[in-house]
Recover the amino acids of this structure.
């Protein structure tokens, strides 16, 4: 095959050059050139199916997204929005060593058990190494095939021979195409390989999983540069010290985003966690100050987690505000609101906020919890253990309602909580019978009165 012509394109302004340049002569950006195929638009046109070229009436278009393949791993299926859609390209990103290969091998095994021929292609490990891992996970379905390959052209050839329904590529950074001269893992390579695989998935109806390592350095392409190319982006989070891993959908063309799945890493692979709130509250201490349980929404599911605060005298000119699991800027704002509207003097205190269990939350509904637990630690007065809370706090100290009040309350009832602190407005929107004692508040001052007076 004749080598295709490639050019280098500035990612900042689109300037084209036949050779790589350190600085763009047009827009003066440094290190912005990425190798691309010269006649990319032309080639695409040839590949496209003629049917797709013509406009179609919307009522004559048929879809087959409802024929989803379930893996049987419920947490995984729910993250995908109810199962794997044939012909979709799913990117799974995460730090090295978090368990991506383990998860996908387990998924591959389950799909193979459902008689879907599955090919697991690794560019990192030999077939023997994968087999060793597979033995730990008891993955031995006769429909599961393994291959070590790094060249895209070879892979496409093997795919045509074997004709699998599901393909796994571990990892995208190790695969290269012969038509580009740049090194495997460079932005140009990763992007070209992904768009070729996307085309393959769409034309053949095969579902393809891509694994991508999150890298700090922008020059070595991470999953971020691929997000717009693929159908679904899942991130596998968690830190090495905790056994729990969270799979989060950040983009999904076939389902809701922000849906999460919770897993536990065991000796025998990843085990799904059916009731995550239980595990996040498992190790809660007895009545101490600076602790309250909050109800936050992760996708369509409410999750109860413990919000902890520690307020102590500071010996620094600029007291510390350290947070784990929540945005530090949000905490700074809330501390200021608590000082100004609630009259709690915190300017000479170090404040530490922690979400127990290693989960990260970005929802505004955690505000009320942060205010309550910070005040509790400052006053050294515990909040009763059976209290759960959620609500947004505004700059004038007002407590605002949040979405899904009923769902959050139901989860709290399920876990045995009997009191809930929430905004007065949220209570008014409630319909039906609620078995929890509802404490409505409308300002930070009221929160302090209700909890600590
Ligand atoms: P791995 O899937 O290789 O991570 P990634 O592909 O994201 O780089 O697995 C990471 C860790 O998981 C590894 O340190 C060992 C551990 N592990 C278990 O605890 N139990 C198991 O059953 C397996 C297969 C791995
Ligand atoms: Mg791996």
């Amino acid at each position: 095959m004749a080598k295709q012509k490639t050019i280098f394109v500035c990612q900042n302004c689109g300037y084209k050059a036949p050779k790589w340049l350190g600085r763009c002569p047009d827009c003066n950006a440094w290190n912005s050139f990425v190798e691309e195929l010269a006649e990319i638009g032309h080639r695409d046109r040839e590949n496209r199916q003629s049917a797709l070229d013509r406009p179609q009436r919307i009522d004559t278009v048929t879809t087959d997204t409802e024929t989803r393949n379930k893996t049987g791993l419920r947490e995984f299926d729910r993250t995908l929005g109810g199962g794997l859609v044939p012909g979709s390209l799913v990117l799974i990103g995460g730090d090295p060593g978090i368990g991506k290969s383990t998860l996908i091998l387990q998924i591959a095994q389950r799909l193979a058990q459902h008689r879907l021929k599955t090919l697991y292609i690794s560019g990192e490990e030999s077939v023997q190494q994968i087999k060793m891992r597979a033995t730990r996970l008891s993955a031995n379905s006769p429909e599961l095939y393994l291959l070590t390959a790094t060249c895209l052209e070879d892979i496409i050839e093997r795919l045509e021979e074997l004709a699998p329904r599901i393909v796994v590529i571990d990892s995208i950074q190790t695969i290269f195409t012969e038509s580009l001269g740049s090194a495997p893992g460079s932005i140009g390579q990763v992007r070209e390989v992904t768009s070729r695989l996307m085309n393959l998935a769409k034309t053949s109806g095969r579902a393809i999983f891509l694994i991508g390592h999150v890298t700090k350095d922008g020059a070595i392409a991470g999953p971020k540069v691929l997000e717009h190319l693929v159908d679904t982006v899942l991130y596998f989070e968690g830190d090495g010290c905790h056994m729990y891993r969270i799979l989060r959908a950040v983009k999904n063309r076939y389902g809701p985003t922000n849906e999460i799945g919770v897993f536990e890493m065991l000796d025998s692979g990843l085990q799904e966690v059916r009731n995550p709130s239980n595990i996040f509250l498992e190790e809660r201490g007895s009545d101490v100050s600076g602790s309250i349980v909050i109800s936050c929404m992760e996708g369509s599911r409410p999750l109860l987690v413990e919000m902890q605060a520690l307020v102590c005298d500071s010996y620094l000119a600029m007291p510390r505000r350290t947070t784990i699991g929540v945005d530090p800027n949000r905490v700074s704002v809330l501390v200021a609101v608590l000082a100004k509207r609630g009259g709690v003097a915190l300017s000479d205190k170090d404040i530490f906020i922690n979400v127990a269990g290693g989960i990260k939350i970005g929802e505004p509904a955690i505000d009320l919890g942060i205010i309550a637990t910070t005040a509790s630690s400052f006053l050294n007065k515990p909040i009763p253990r059976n209290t759960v809370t959620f609500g947004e706090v505004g700059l004038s100290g007002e407590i605002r309602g949040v979405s899904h009040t009923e769902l959050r309350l139901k989860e709290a009832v399920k876990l045995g909580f009997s009191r809930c602190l929430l905004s007065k407005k949220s209570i008014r929107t409630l319909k039906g019978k609620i078995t929890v004692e509802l404490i409505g508040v409308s300002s930070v001052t009221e929160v302090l009165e209700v909890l600590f007076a």
